[in-house]
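User: Can you model how adenosine monophosphate sits in this protein?
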Amino acid sequence: MYVTGLMMQMPLLLSSILEHAERHHGKQEIVSRRTEGDVHRISFADTAARARKLANALTKIGVKPGENVATIAWNGYRHVEIYYAVAGMGAVTHTLNPRYSPQQLIYIINHAKNKTVLFDVTFAPLVKAISAHCPTVERWILLSDENKMPAEPPVANLLNYEALLADASDTYVWPQFDENTACTLCYTSGTTGNPKGVLYSHRSTILHAMAANCPDALGLSRKDTILPVVPMFHVNAWGLPYAALISGSKLVMPGAQLDGASIYQLMEEEKVTIAAGVPTIWLGLLNYVTQNKLSFSTFKRTLVGGAAMPISLIRAYDELGVDVMHGWGMTEMSPLGTVSKLAGDEYKLSKDEQYQLVAKQGRALFGVDMKTVDEALNELPWSGEESGELLVRGHWIVNHYYGDEGEKSFSSDATGKRWFATGDVSKIYPNGMMQITDRSKDVIKSGGEWISSIDLENIAMSHPAVQEAAVIAMPHEKWTERPLLIVVKKPNAEISRDELLKFYEGRIIKMYIPDDVVFVTELPHGATGKIQKSQLREQFKNHVMP
Ligand code: AMP
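Assistant: Here's the modeled complex, given as structure tokens:
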């Protein structure tokens, strides 16, 4: 007979993070670059009080538990208050990615049946363009000071966030409910078909934030100042607004200014120790720092993910004294699955060997299990040789999409365990390191072999003249597909097609070397910073390979 443990059962609710932050790290700060133009500071204690006011204000205007409350907003203190107040009262914070097309946003708002939308002034033109197509929305709330309301409001009956708060009491007792209650909703990029919703629970979100805080992942402490450059509209800013308040780290929010110069200035002024974002952000920052011969005085660690971090960038940041933690995950995984921190003897390897390891996507966090499978869903060995689709399961992995779409992504194994198919192709090494070689739809199938576009891109980007690179598959009569390399050169750098192809020799087996190179001034990036390979395939569909 099993015996029940005699321990307290406290539901894992997001409101408990806010209460902890207020009681135990009350003086710690959230610093935000605002759309009003200034830098704003607020303590965790005052944030908690404003979140209680917001819960009262939202209740007063009719927001009910279980309702999806949408935001279209940058990273900032108001967005943090919304995260906690909406979820704390039992409703669902639904973050909309403003980089989606207006048609996608209209689809998502209607699909989620949003009645309330809170938005930054930057997105007033977007709201103006979509509002007529969003019949479910009853309340549009502008996130601005009361005296900064636009002369021509984008919608009729526009409400002001600060006015709502000014009228509200800061006395509010967070309700206690089942920890499996939904707290946030985020739609995936939707590169194929319509975007799909992932509905996170209080429990999954807290477990994810606690795991993300382990030393071989973010390892946040009270001494840290964290800059989430990753937007709060992309998978809850990777859980950092929760992790920071749990650990008492100062939170620095960049607002709308995500260029290298603005990020650098904020890092230096606020003494940022750790940051998180997609590789393109770190490329922009690196260009600014190297062009201006600058260095970092406090910045020591960065969590990079969302797309593969090129070895060249890992090396450049290491040389600037910044340790790159390369993470892999996805919206469906809250997002963190693996982090590529080195282990034991790996620290004794040469720098180049260490960079090779960090460029892989890393080892699973406790709470996530993973395996690679063949087409019949048989598990592949952890040999580091065979690639297959990556399947995951765990406490913060999606169990169903919102609205029960996309059921074909899920399967059960012989023991009845449920797995989610990520759509990523990867290999797992004997030491537990996982390496993404491609998205399944981006892999290059040549002569019966799968060529990794990420490997080819990494080699191109290690050439000093190359700023950014993407490899796509081109149809080929004999080999089925062959790789085409598309490159953006660094400013003022020169390199020819033949020189670049020669650079591959000795770095990869001959039959993997791309057949051709095209130079472009810019690569298309999607709503979450990833290179849009579908767009490149369309753009170069008539390209004639040699
Ligand atoms: P999203 O749901 O928009 O966050 O996108 C998730 C997808 O981004 C994953 O399934 C991967 O294809 C890709 N991705 C995320 N992190 C990495 C990484 N470190 N390396 C390579 N691809 C990544």
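A couple of observations from the model: The first strand starts at residue 29 and ends at 33. The mean pLDDT is 95.
User: Helpful, thanks.
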